[in-house]
Amino acid sequence: MNNKKVLIGLPRSGSSWVQQFVDAHNKKYFNTHTIIDQFGGSEFFDENNFTFSINNKQITLLNVDEKINFLEHEKINNRFYSIKIFLDQIYDKQKWFYNFYNDWDIIKLIRENSFDQFISDMVHTPSKKEILIRELNANQNDYILEFLDWHNKLYSFKTNNTLIYENLNHLTLEDMFGVILNKHEIEKKLNNKYDQLFDRYDEVKNIFSKLTVDSN
């Protein structure tokens, strides 16, 4: 429990679930803060504008550089924030990331079933699903290849610790982060019925499996 924790992963890897334990740990042991935008979102480093309130003052940060400047300024005032980060959001800012979090435990979250992670992202993000369908109709695989590229980059990203989503449960996370959370309010969500939610499931799975072998 000696250090603050920062979690890095990719979408649909269980990061929202694990981040709740990270936030609770950082709050309990280091009195860190969380940032929620005006729509209830917590993806601080998303490329879009991020508007939130601190001490009844509304702040809008327009891009990643402004968000970095905000965190640096707050650090000077000894205010730290527990933030969930996706690798693609800070990949071009790695030098800053490792410097800023040099005294934090950097935790990488991997979902071993990469196909379930991919298809979950498609099902839950209509714009991505549209891109996938267009590429399938055109016999193109760029979107799947891009996902696999990010998945491989995450595997090679240097961190203090690696968590495998499939190996985690509520009790192991409580023990790991030294916190107690309400199990009925914070549940691990596993949806294995993607074949019922996407009518081209088998087609995508076959393509994904072949490309996964080729990319390794």
Q: Could you provide a short overview of the structure?
A:
The protein is about 45% helix and about 15% strand.
Number of domains: 1
Estimate the helix proportion, in percent.
40-55%
How would a textbook summarize the main sheet? 4 strands, parallel
The percentage of residues in β strands lies in 5-15%
H/E element order: EHEEHEHHEHHHEHH
Span between N and C termini? 36 Å
Unreliable spans are none
Mean pLDDT figure: 92
Structural class: alpha/beta
Features:
216 residues; alpha/beta; four-stranded parallel sheet; two-stranded antiparallel sheet; globular
Please tell me about this protein's structure.
With 216 residues, this protein is an alpha/beta fold. It has one domain (5-32, 82-215). Helix content is 47%, strand content 13%. The protein is built from nine helices and six strands, in the order βαββαβααβαααβαα. The chain has helices at residues 15-30, 64-76, 87-90, 94-100, 114-124, 126-137, 142-156, 170-177, 201-215, and strands spanning 5-9, 50-54, 57-61, 84-86, 105-110, 161-164. The strands form two sheets. The protein has a four-stranded parallel beta sheet, with helices on both faces. A two-stranded antiparallel ribbon has the order 2-3. Helix 5 (114-124) crosses helix 6. The mean pLDDT is 92.
Strands, helices and their partners?
Blueprint: E1 5-9, H1 15-30, E2 50-54, E3 57-61, H2 64-76, E4 84-86, H3 87-90, H4 94-100, E5 105-110, H5 114-124, H6 126-137, H7 142-156, E6 161-164, H8 170-177, H9 201-215
Parallel strand pairs: 1-4, 1-5, 5-6
Antiparallel strand pairs: 2-3
Helix pairs in contact: 5-6, 7-9
